Amino acid sequence: MKILGISGTLVGSKTRIITQYLVNEIERQYPDFEMEMIDLKDYQLDFCDGRPILHYNDHTRAIIAKFENADAYVLGTTIIHGSIPGALKNLFDVIPMTVFEGKTIALAANGGNPQHGKAIEDHLKPITNYLKMNTVPNYVFATSGDFNSFNKLDNLEIREQLMSIAKVFGEKCKQKV
User: pTM for the whole thing?
Assistant: First the structure.
């Protein structure tokens, strides 16, 4: 089972940290899963404008291929102004819908305001549902206060939530095999 972890923002470092934590926890609990982590910061994605995939740049085509080749996803995002970042929405737009259908996805997010956690239910889950993904029902939302001064995830409750998500995600993935 090939799992693709995605840090879905171009700003900050906490999204990468929380996503990597979840990916590492899945890998610890399910060592037979093949894990790959990507960070949108490392790619120059074209803006989705409806052109054929072959006409997008190498980075865009490479990310599309990674999504096509994955069996499931672990998505981390920051919440900006109460919603997902434009770069993540563009990623969803540029990848053909059929790539996502039936694949399991686990969600983790971070933001500066605890109220931003509602964006997972209000903005992100409607997208994953529309794309016909099997969204893990539990998710985690962390704020800046959940990280210490060294930018390490320091909140035991958040780490336990990530362990729980990893377990549910792994079991959902195994059911698909």
Answer: 0.95
